[in-house]
Amino acid sequence: MKNKITLTHCIILEGNENMEPKENMSIVIEDGLISYIGENPNTKDSEIIDLYDKYVLPGLINAHVHLPGSGKPSKPGSQNADSVKKLIGNPIAYSVIKRMCANYAKTELLSGTTTIRTMGGLGQIDSSIRDSVNNGEKIGPRMLVSDMAVSVPGGHMAGVLAYEATSPEECRTYVSKIAEGKPDIIKLMITGGVLDAKVKGEPGILKMPLEYVEAACAEAHKLGFKVAAHTESTEGVLVALKGGVDTIEHGAMPTDEIIALYKERKAADICTISPALPIATFPTELTNSTELVQYNGKVVMDGIIESAKECLANDIPVGLGTDTACPFVTHYNMWRELYLFHKYVGVSTSFALYSATLGNAKILGIEKETGSVTEGKSADLFIADCNPLDDLSILAKPYMVVFKGKIMKNPKVKKYAKIEKNLDVAFAKL
Ligand SMILES: [Zn+2]
Questions:
Q1: Cα-to-centroid distance, 261 and ligand 1 (Å)
Q2: Is the overall model pTM greater than 0.85, yes or no?
Q3: CA 55/CA 13 separation, integer angstroms
Q4: 430 inside domain
Q5: Confidence check: pLDDT of 329 > 70
Q6: Do 76 and 47 share a domain, yes or no?
């Protein structure tokens, strides 16, 4: 017999661009898929869960996650390549890190994020967690993973979450090496980041030459993978798009040429305000950073926001990700990215919710499977006490999470009080 569940008295927010609440609906879930949405369900042989007018929306999709890290600000220099290599080389440490990463993935799910895309991890930990979730050994969200990224010597995350390529040929070799671990996507680190910038006003300087990017993208596309790239400067975005990258992670102040290239290449922008806000606006003692880092953080934050605005104005898809594990970016706060997108980029709450659900699903190529409350799709649902379109902070605590039809009632995650307090103060000023 089929595993059949009927949710009754639902107010549905479907997940599309101009969603309106649909009241008094029932949702029938059979073997993990939504088989019926409407007012007259056939409840024969079904478990019935009365939701008493709770809001049912698609599970959120976080398009930019790093699993190895909690988001608690760490001491400067604690993530250097040598210490990471030592840890990964030690089987006991490796299994501890893997368990930690799996727990963070579970936290994403329990906070209502039913799909994550990882954008740089340690070894093949991400893909092995994905496989354990898919075969039912672990509880976690749907995962699209990149495993290790490709960077260059002295580049972003080089030797930590990324291999260091010294030629276009090596870029190809690393891409095919990563592909052997069966990831879902290839990640490149094209520019530096805020934390490794050396010059005031020049965050995200170009590190990976165009020929490297072209070689990596050609190899990835040949093997059937899309390419995402860390890019935090205008020059970097230009090289990324010319080289064939499919999604620009973070983004920077755009130019007409960049907008034209986005369109020509059918590329998308992934907006990540969550990691920029604390670095750009918190006192430096809190983020363990310097004035230089804070200044450059502001440059990057402005670039991320302008990039998203210009892309939207030109009908270029904009997705949302939190860049978890950056200082103050935890695995349970996807709702904050929606809020920041709404406030800084100036979109409606429904467009923010669309961007984090169906919009992200389209960019990630999984819109047939998930991303909206639609018959035939996976039952990946976020159930909220009140209407999140009135107040996105409702999404901070799901009433229930459903993933592939599995019901998680009153899901709880461990929150970090100091992080929440500081973010709440900053959000109150927006
Ligand atoms: Zn990142």
A1: 23
A2: yes
A3: 7
A4: no
A5: yes
A6: no
